[in-house]
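for the writeup, i need someone to sanity check this before i put it in the appendix. the sequnce is what the collaborator sent (i think, or maybe the updated version? ugh). structure was predicted straight from it, no edits. if anything looks off just tell me and ill rerun, i have time this weekend
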Amino acid sequence: MNVEQLLSNKLADAIKEIYGQPAPQGALQLQATRKEFEGDLTAMMFPLVKISRRSPEQTGETVGAWLKEHCAEVASVNVVKGFLNIKLSAEFWHAQLQHMAATAAYGVCRASGKTVMVEYSSPNTNKPLHLGHIRNNLLGYSVSRLLEANGHKVIKVNLVNDRGIHICKSMLAWQKWGQGETPESAGKKGDHLVGNYYVMFDKAYKEQQAALKAQGKSDDEAAKQAPAIRQAQEMLRKWEQGDRDTVALWRTMNSWVYAGFEATYKRLGVAFEKIYYESDTYLLGKKIVEEGLQKGVFTRHDDGSVWVDLTNDGLDQKLLLRADGTSVYITQDLGTAVQRYAEYPFEELIYVVGNEQDYHFQVLKLLLKKLGYTWADTIYHLSYGMVELPAGKMKSREGTVVDADDLMEEMVETARKTSLELGKLNDIPADEQERLFEMLGMGALKYFILKVDPAKTMLFNPKESIDFNGNTGPFIQYTHARIKSVLRKAAAQRLEAAISHAALSEREVELVKRMVNFPETLQQAGREHSPALVANYTYELAKEFNQYYHEVPVLREPDASTKAQRLLLLQQVAGIIKTGMGILGIDVPERM
C-alpha cells in the first residue's frame, strides 16, 4: 500500500468516526504539500464542509486532531486556509526503508496477466537508420521495458517497409552506377551503401526535372516525365509481377540492408520478438476490404477503387484500394493488425510512430471498429514529436540526415574525450575504459532523448548530453558508480548493511521519501507510456543522493548501527537507480 492510499484510508476512518457518515465520493484527494509549508501530504477540507457543517479551517483542525491522536504514522498537522497539511513521522519513514529493503525488485509489479504488443522502428530498406529512428527505437524499447516493469507480457514487433517506389529508386541507381559494388568491396555497412544510391537517384532525378523545366515543362509535368522516375515505376511494376531478375536484385540489396540494421540495433541495445515485412503483409488487407464491401462499410467507385466515407465521423473520405486493385498503407495496416491479434491476442496494441501519422491511426482504429473488431479500442498511437538539430530538419533524399551509426560513434568518442579530460577513469585498465566509454556515450544518447516527454518536438545537441554534473545519463551513471565504490570499501572492511533502530536524519528521510515514490512513478509512467517520468525521477533521486553524500558521513560514521543502516540506504538507492536506468535501456557502471 502506498503512502497516499494509507493516509486516504486513515482520513476515511476519521470522517466516519467524527461525523457519523462516510466522506463524499472523491472528496479525499491528497497531493504533495507545497514546499513553503510543513508537511508531506495535503488534503483539501472544502469538500467536507457539507457534512462537518463547519468552515474548512475548523474542519481541518478537527480532522487533524483526530489523526494526530489515532495515527502513529502522523507526526504533526497544520491547517492553512482550508488545507490540512500532514507530516509523517520519522518512524514511519524508517518502516518504509525496512519494507523497501525486504522487497525484491522494489517498484516492479507482479504479473498482471495482460499482453501488450508494441510496434516500433519500422524502417525503410532504402536508407540507414537516422536520428529520428533512434528516438523511435529508444521510445519503443523503453516503453516495452516500462510495461514489463508494470507486470505485463510485452511482444515487441517491427514492420520493415521493404517494398515500394522508394526501394526501387535505390535499386535503379545501383543498376545504373553501381558497377557490381557490394558492402564487402566498398568496405561499408550494407544499409549505408544502399542509402548512398538513394541519394544518387534523387540527385539525378532533380537534374532531369530541371532540364525538362528549362524546355518549358511545368513542375508537375517535369516530376512525372523525368526518365528516372518512369524507370523506377517500371521497376516497381516488374517487382509486383514477380520478374525474376528484379526480385533477385531486390532480395540481394535488402539482405545488405538487413545486416546493417541488425548491427545498428545491437549497438543501440534494442530487439524484437518478431519482425514483419511489408512485402509479406501488403496484400493482407484485401480480404478485409472485401468483407467491408459486403457489410456496406465500404463502397466501390465506378473506376473500381474502394473508398470509405468518414465525414460523419469528423474525418474525410479514405481510399482503401486503388483502381488497379493495389493496396495502400491503411489497407496493409488493417490486415497486419488482424493477423497480429490472431497470432498474439493482446489487451493493448501500441504503435510508436511520429505525430505526422496522427490522422492515419485515427482512421485505422475507426475502420477496425466499423468492421466489428471489438479489440480496436485497444489500439494506442504513441505519437511522438520530431527530433530537430541546431541546423534544422533532416532530409533523407538530400543526404542531410544524422546517421544513427555515425551519431553513436560520435557519442562514444565524446564520452572518451570528456572522461579523459576530467581524469575520472585514470585508475581503470585500458580495456575496461573502452567498455566504460561505450556505456557512457550510449547512456548519454539514450537519456538525453528519453528524458523529454514523447509528445514534444525535441532539439538534440550532442555536446549537452555528456555532462557529469547536469541532468544527463553520465551524471546518473557516475552516481551509481560512486555508491558502488562506497559499498565495495565497506565490504573490504567487513561491514554489513542492515536495518537498525538508529534514527533517520532529515536528509535520510528526504531520500526515503523520494524512493517511496518509485513504485507510483513506474505505474504512472506505464499508464502514460512515458519513459520521461522514469528518467527525470531517477535524476532527482541521484541529485538528492549526492547532496546527502556530501553532507552525511557513511564509512566515517562512528556509530556501528547507524553506519550499517546508512549502507543499507545506499544499497536501496543504487538498486532503484539501476532499475530506473535499466527501464530506459541504459547500463550503469560498477565503478568509474
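The radius of gyration is 30 Å. Residues 393-399 have pLDDT under 50 and may be disordered.
thx in advance!!
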